[in-house]
User: Fold this.
Amino acid sequence: MFLSLLFLPYDPPVTMVSAMAPLSAYLSDVAEAWIKLDGKDFRLDDWPMHRAIYDGRHLRTLLKTSRQVGKSTTLANFCIVECSLIPHFSSMFVTPSKEQTVRFSNSRVQKTMRYSPIINRRFLHPELSDRVFHKQFTNGAEMLFTYALDDADRLRGPSVDRTNYDEIQDLLYDPVVIVGNETLSESDYQFETYAGTPKTMENTIEYLWEKSTQTEWVIQCDACKKHQFIVSDACIGKRGPECLGCRAPLNPRNGQWIDTNPPKIDQIHPETILKGFHINQLIMPSNVPAAMQGQGPDRLALAEKRWARILRKYEEATSMAVFKNEVLGVSDAIGARLISLEELESLCLGPALVQFPAAPDFQGYSLHVAGVDWSGGGQSGLSRTVLWIWGFRPHDQKLVCKYYKVFPNTNPVHTVEEIATICAGYEVSMVIGDAGEGMLANSTLATKLGPHRVHQVQYGAQKEPIKWNGRDRYTADRTTLIDNFFMILKKAQVEFGPLSEMHVAIEDILNEYEEVTQSGRKVWRHSPQRPDDCLHAAIFGWVALKLVQNDMKFYH
Ligand SMILES: [Zn+2]
Assistant:
């Protein structure tokens, strides 16, 4: 068995003695010594910037990358090597969909392990699990694979040492990432890896990038000696990236990683530093003829061809935003909104909001319902609890906002009590709260208002707009519900209170924007810095009305 270690250029064999002790080997060297890809030795010669990702041992890593720069290969190889080197280490992969996770597990991880003889011989064993969602190593290490788009249900449970989120731009930060990282709480390591391709400026990946070291591959120009890094199309030349100072060709092999947003001296806590690497197609030596000089005519010709393909994409790009995202690996543009500020303001025609209604406040309304978005207590500290009260006015069939309130903290007893009191005052027919973080609060509310009046809804991704799970909650398709709610706002089937009282709610509603995921699915997102709780409280209240009225029609 130990024979395999003779392939390594060092001795003694690598072990991890304690959580923070350095490995006595560079993971990039081990990857090159142990891994074979498509029958060939894995080499980082043409991927010089990837070494830092293998070897950095950063607690928190972000890979903000364009397409086709080896992101998935790096994630897979890195985790295979890490699990091989650290006995009993466990690593969890999360992508936005089952398909993406299955593909990653089968074609990146399983294939590589099977066809890398050292790893196959030393770490695989027929009696150990080698399933798509769970792989065990002979040293007790394991890899778990799961997926989560709009809800974190599949992430709860296991305890792991590293979470890896791939295609992070398509995952909801809150709750998915926050709940996902709870799996690290028992670990001595608590490593986090985020990887994805940028989208809009409001996306999760840009949020993480803003907080990261913003580490760029800084290339020195051979001609004028200026240093620069590539974040725009201004450097695109006929035969490769060019110096913005003198237009000489840039050779990415002259690059080195530089933090452009280094941690401030007085706030350096290693556990909070997020090392963010930006990798794009223009800095990959294999795409750049200047980097392939002296490597033989075939490799040079291949680089010429690859650069020509980038130029073609640049010239034919129907959307500059997509070129920036997928080739330059930078965020661009803001997300699409279905509804405008003017449209929302035009709904503000209703009476003043009332916390404790008197008899006249009930006149003209056939019933009242409520929605509560319970605070997830997210790390960002921006998630709040919101109560929303709707009244239904039969004469014009309108949904009228009678009251809403934003509670800034997680759900202490007095918040739940106040919500129960307001709901009782309005004699609401039904209250719906979100199930995710609100399980306990919902059951307290049910005790106070009666179980028949309190229900919970859990967002997720499913075919049916909404269905009863047969036990304790409704499950709903998040996209469909938000789509439908925006439609009734657009059709002005809703009346808000006076504009002066609706600013917070309107801001929350406008924070929600539309994106299309890598697998072509439409989703609603909000920046982790910009809350949307009022929107969801309003939606849950509206769902309560639909349930009371037994109207389960949705535009779908
Ligand atoms: Zn220059």
In short: Residues 297-316 form the longest helix (20 residues). The chain is about 30% helix and 20% strand.
